[in-house]
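WARN no homologs supplied; continuing
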Amino acid sequence: MKSILKFAFVSALLVTPLFAAKTASVTIAQQVSVGSAQIAPGDYKVSWQGSGPAVKVSLTRSGSAPIVLDAKLSAGQKGGGDVLVASQNGAQVLQEIDLSNATLVFDQAAQK
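OK structure emitted
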């Protein structure tokens, strides 16, 4: 019984930091799309709701309405606000946002 409690406690300690910080700031350097949403270049506040893996992400830029997207939240220690963009069919598509404690991965098919 003690080993089960220890395992549960350690698991909670490891998972909690992943979901603790639910906001960050990122700069999107170029026009990108996610599904049918078009995202203009600029500085955005990124926030998400849910405990993962499926979350709702809001990108908010000063003076603009929030853009709400579906994403997959996963553990990540890649960077602090890195934005990964790929070219698909001649368009720049937002793939993921790497934060200090998590990665938000955007599925293009889920956005339609």
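The beta strands are 23-28, 32-34, 37-39, 42-49, 54-60, 67-75, 82-88, 91-98, 102-105.
OK
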